[in-house]
């Protein structure tokens, strides 16, 4: 969704209907590839070790983006990346959420990730003095703004 919004529509300057049309046609192409078994031929042509490595690489990339957004990893001119400012409130809250998730997962708690996300989000709300009604009012106002 972010790629569609910011890259295709904003950077490339395409109208959103053209971009949605491209998404539709790519879906049709993938459907045809799947129905005609060409997709499975392509997958079987990739060596098993590479097939296992691709999801790991994608996962590490997503984790790296999360660490950057949390402020745990920052840009450095000397080494390209460096450890972020741990005393930043956003970074502290992110580290707390990661540690809480790790502890809950290691203890085998069902729904550990959801519990840690909700606990961390509640921490943000508490720190900023916001409540659930604030967010509901905010999203309701945004919905009205977009729908008229």
UniProtKB/TrEMBL annotation:
<feature type="transmembrane region" description="Helical">
    <location>
        <begin position="112"/>
        <end position="136"/>
    </location>
</feature>
<dbReference type="Pfam" id="PF00860">
    <property type="entry name" value="Xan_ur_permease"/>
</dbReference>
<keyword id="KW-1133">Transmembrane helix</keyword>
<dbReference type="InterPro" id="IPR006043">
    <property type="entry name" value="NCS2"/>
</dbReference>
<dbReference type="InterPro" id="IPR045018">
    <property type="entry name" value="Azg-like"/>
</dbReference>
<feature type="transmembrane region" description="Helical">
    <location>
        <begin position="12"/>
        <end position="33"/>
    </location>
</feature>
<dbReference type="GO" id="GO:0005345">
    <property type="term" value="F:purine nucleobase transmembrane transporter activity"/>
</dbReference>
<keyword id="KW-0812">Transmembrane</keyword>
<feature type="transmembrane region" description="Helical">
    <location>
        <begin position="86"/>
        <end position="105"/>
    </location>
</feature>
<comment type="similarity">
    <text>Belongs to the nucleobase:cation symporter-2 (NCS2) (TC 2.A.40) family. Azg-like subfamily.</text>
</comment>
<keyword id="KW-0813">Transport</keyword>
<keyword id="KW-0472">Membrane</keyword>
<dbReference type="GO" id="GO:0012505">
    <property type="term" value="C:endomembrane system"/>
</dbReference>
<protein>
    <submittedName>
        <fullName>Permease family protein</fullName>
    </submittedName>
</protein>
<feature type="transmembrane region" description="Helical">
    <location>
        <begin position="53"/>
        <end position="74"/>
    </location>
</feature>
<dbReference type="GO" id="GO:0005886">
    <property type="term" value="C:plasma membrane"/>
</dbReference>
């Amino acid at each position: 969704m972010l790629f569609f919004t910011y890259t295709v529509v904003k950077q490339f300057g395409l109208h959103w209907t053209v971009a949605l049309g491209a998404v539709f046609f790519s879906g049709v192409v993938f459907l045809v590839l799947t129905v005609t078994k060409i997709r499975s031929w392509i997958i079987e042509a990739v060596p098993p070790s590479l097939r296992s490595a691709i999801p790991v690489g994608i996962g590490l990339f997503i984790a790296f983006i999360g660490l950057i957004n949390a402020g745990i990893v920052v840009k450095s001119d000397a080494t390209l990346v460096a450890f972020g400012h741990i005393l930043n409130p956003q970074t502290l809250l992110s580290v707390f959420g990661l540690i809480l998730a790790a502890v809950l997962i290691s203890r085998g708690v069902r729904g550990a990730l959801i519990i840690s996300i909700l606990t961390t989000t509640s921490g943000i709300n508490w720190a900023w003095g916001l409540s659930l009604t604030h967010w509901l009012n905010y999203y309701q106002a945004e919905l009205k703004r977009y729908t008229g």
